[in-house]
Amino acid sequence: MMEGLGFRPYEAYKDSRVDWIGSIPSTWDVQRAKWLFKRMDRGVRPEDDIVTCFRDGEVTLRSNRRTEGFTTALKEIGYQGIRKGDLVIHAMDAFAGAIGVSDSDGKATPVYSACVPRQPNTVDPTFYAYYMRHLALSGFLVSLAKGIRERSTDFRFNDFAELEIPFPCLSEQRAIAAFLDDKCAKIDGAVKIKEYQIALLRERRQIIIQDAVTRGLNPAAPMKDSGIDWIGQIPAHWKLKKLKYASSALRTGRTPPTDSSIDYFDDGTVCWYTPGDFKEDGEFQGAEKLISPKAEKAGFVDIYPENSVYFVGIGGTLGRVNISRVKASCNQQFNVILPSEETAPELVLFWLMANRESIYYLTDFSTMPIRNQSQTKNIPIPCPPDFEQKQIVGFIQNTIVEIRQVISIKQDQIAALKEYKTSLINAAVTGKIKVI
User: What number of other Cβ atoms are within 10 A of residue 237's Cβ?
Assistant: First the structure.
């Protein structure tokens, strides 16, 4: 594969005498890591800030990326000094790729191993960061850790120290590292461009849906003030209703007891939704859990008809919404909307999707955002005539399909780029291709 892309192999190879390494270029050697690296145990300086080793291989000051989502120690017991250029291995997350070269001076938890060359001008930490991440992402470190300590994915310095690893000369290590830095930066740049394009497509989809359900498809239609700031103007012939008047019913889901001797999910046949089944962009494949009819017979759940709209009303996923095309049930985190005969379920779906942010900020907050049935019933919704609802729904559905197809193509391109990057790294650090 790599030869077809213009890369050539080395002139000759030899057996490394290490089963999992296999053949290596004839000019390479194999050494245990402990003869190449030593672990540093530095003190912490007053000016040192916290360095974090991320799973994508970046090792940098925490403040350079983000400050939320970390556990902050009350006492920094055992913290150590980290220096720019250290090869840093996260003992608990190494298996997931948390290995890299620090770009900053700072301090870090003792769960990190800060490694430096045992002898000057012998090894390039960046080359070995690439190599060790190759071992991590290929699953080798997990298999190694489990072989040492059952049911553990720890990869400590002692494990690294005893590992036999390929040892090209320093100039070749540096050449491979520089080659990969350049190629990976270009690939990462291409990925970011495509991710940005996907974000723009999703934003465009949101704007199209918002315009269609608020202003309709006729730009020349006379408009009127809705009387609600976050809605603005709507076509003059539309009605503005509260959701309870556009619905035949609005209910809340329930969860059967777990302390019963009966498993109400055993032999389940009916979809029972939880917020995890509903994706951020409106996609979902159905319910992860199926509930049995005996839960309904026992009075613990309600079964709602097909084309009911399920709207998450609590927590961080508040506002996620979708239509179930089958009879189904759900847990208590949902408000279930049964649209009236005059209101297309899809119109309710697209209105709630388009106005998720506004609805979120109009929700009560305590320890978490909660929108109860009463609040959901009072959500205002513009209601066009029946024929216009069908036109709007059809237009939005076609737009979503078109944009989803373009997004899918770009996602496939991103996956191909990432796969190519992984293959390129693996081929370079194992000597399958020659870069100098």
Answer: 12
The CATH architecture assigned to 3-191+417-429 reads Alpha-Beta Complex (3.90)
Q: Is the CA virtual torsion 240, 243, 244, 247 positive or negative?
A: positive
The total number of residues shown for the chain amounts to 436
Residue ranges per structural domain of the chain: 3-191+417-429, 239-383
Q: How far apart are CA 376 and CA 313, in angstroms?
A: 8
Superfamily of domain 239-383: DNA methylase specificity domains (3.90.220.20)
| Residue 104 near residue 166, CB atoms below 8 Å | no
Nearest to 71 by CA among 104, 111, 40: 111
CA distance 364 to 309: 22
Which of 200, 161, 215 is closest to 351 using CA atoms?
Answer: 215
Query: Has residue 144 got a pLDDT over 80?
Result: no
Same fold, 3-191+417-429 and 239-383: yes
Task: Give pTM, 2 decimals.
Answer: 0.84
Convert the pLDDT of each residue in 177-223 to its tens digit: 999 999 999 999 999 999 999 999 999 999 999 999 999 999 999 99
